[in-house]
Design brief:
Elements (H helix, E strand, L loop, with lengths): L1 H8 L14 E5 L3 H6 L1 H13 L2 E4 L9 H5 L3 H14 L5 E4 L2 H10 L11 E3 H8 L12 E4 L3 H7 L4 H7 L5 E3 L14 H4 L1 H17 L4 E4 L2 H13 L5 E4 H6 L11
Parallel strand pairs: 1-2, 1-3, 3-4, 5-6, 5-7, 7-8
Helix pairs in contact: 6-8, 11-12
């Protein structure tokens, strides 16, 4: 699958060294999971965007996007959270989040709750490729890496091969194809709690495919999926580590990123 995409998009890869023409005022929405469990990912997004000439701010009034409430059936509780998000991010050129899942919630569900965002909201790879129009972000990550496309980014947002184009431009990185890449990892938020046996079976299949690549790292655009896959890989003492796409892209030869998870 990836080889076919590589051939289809090879002629369209942007290899121009990114140079910011003007400063873009960007609001970072780190998401609840990243803020509480994986703050290094948020730091990586800031480092990366500032390197590309963006002025990054973190609105202190930002709250949860309400995804876990809405997906669990608590629409009434999700509605005021959507309104708070819209107010917190008003006035920015763009809102960027390291999560296709949360961006999908904001873009697709918030308008149904009567609280559409007043600023354009992007998943990280969308913002880099579509808005800043770069794929070569001057990153350096000398490791063998495989990529898991998360369900919301793949099916709800349609980010397509944007993350792969970014990874292919990383110096020193060997990108290896993941079998059955588009299969769900089995997390799904409360799905993993309510349907633990099914979730574990799906995770097992994903882990076997990751291990079959011989990769040192598995990456994705959502920490929720990486937490699920990385947790399984850690418990089996596989040696394969999970790392967010932002952390790979933030790494340079002069300032290599240290993966702490």
């Amino acid at each position: 699958m990836l080889d076919r995409r590589q051939r289809a998009h090879k002629a369209h890869q942007d290899t121009v060294t990114p140079v910011a023409v003007q400063t873009t005022r960007v609001a970072l929405f780190p998401t609840c999971l990243t803020d509480t469990l994986f703050p290094d990912t948020a730091k990586a997004v800031v480092r990366l965007l500032e390197r590309l000439g963006c002025a990054v701010e973190l609105p202190m009034d930002a709250t949860c996007c309400g995804q876990m409430h809405y997906n669990t059936g608590y629409r009434e509780q999700a509605t005021p959270l959507a309104g708070a998000m819209a107010r917190a991010f008003a006035g920015y050129d763009a809102v960027v989040a390291p999560s296709g899942s949360c961006v999908g919630m904001i873009r697709e569900v918030h308008p149904r709750l009567g609280n559409g965002s007043v600023a354009p909201v992007y998943e990280l790879s969308e913002f880099l490729v579509d808005v800043l129009e770069v794929t070569d972000v001057r990153a350096y990550f000398p490791h063998r890496v495989t990529y898991h496309p998360t369900c919301h980014s793949l099916r709800l947002l349609g980010v397509g091969d944007r993350p792969l184009r970014l990874l292919r431009a990383v110096r020193g990185l060997e990108l290896v194809e993941l079998d059955e890449a588009e299969s769900c990892c089995g997390f799904g938020g409360t799905f993993a709690v309510k349907n633990a046996a099914t979730s574990t079976a799906m995770l097992t299949d994903k882990m076997w495919n990751v291990l079959g690549t011989g990769a040192e790292f598995v990456t994705a655009g959502d920490n929720s999926c990486l937490m699920h896959i990385g947790g399984g890989l850690s418990r089996t003492r596989s040696g394969v580590r999970a790392v967010h796409l932002a952390e790979i892209l933030a790494s340079t030869e002069e300032e290599p990123w240290v993966v702490t998870r």
